[in-house]
């Protein structure tokens, strides 16, 4: 399964790669992958990085599916928009995870940690991007108590981050 994901990711990366500059999503993916596979890193740091890798892989897969969908005739502008959305979602997901990590670490009590986790979990599930019916994939981390990043992969990260910031400021 892991080899299959790596092969798909490599395919997606090559299809979506920009000639002039490295894509934001690819930069975040590469950085997260490096941390996730570094056995000298703290296990929780590696798990957060693994979530980022899987979230970007999910976004890449959905973007590629839209691009190769033969029922739609996409213009170059449509494809550019999909790629820009991919980069934007990857960037905001990265910011989301970083903000979560910062807020969770700053929380003093277990009660506060639980509140922070709930705010972030709820925002991820309440702002789907694709409304993907494949809940096994979408919720792969959501119900995993062995991961702090218990978030849906099918998330509109821009909306979720805005929601979280609003709730944290309240």
Automatic annotation (TrEMBL):
<feature type="signal peptide">
    <location>
        <begin position="1"/>
        <end position="20"/>
    </location>
</feature>
<protein>
    <submittedName>
        <fullName>Uncharacterized protein</fullName>
    </submittedName>
</protein>
<keyword id="KW-0732">Signal</keyword>
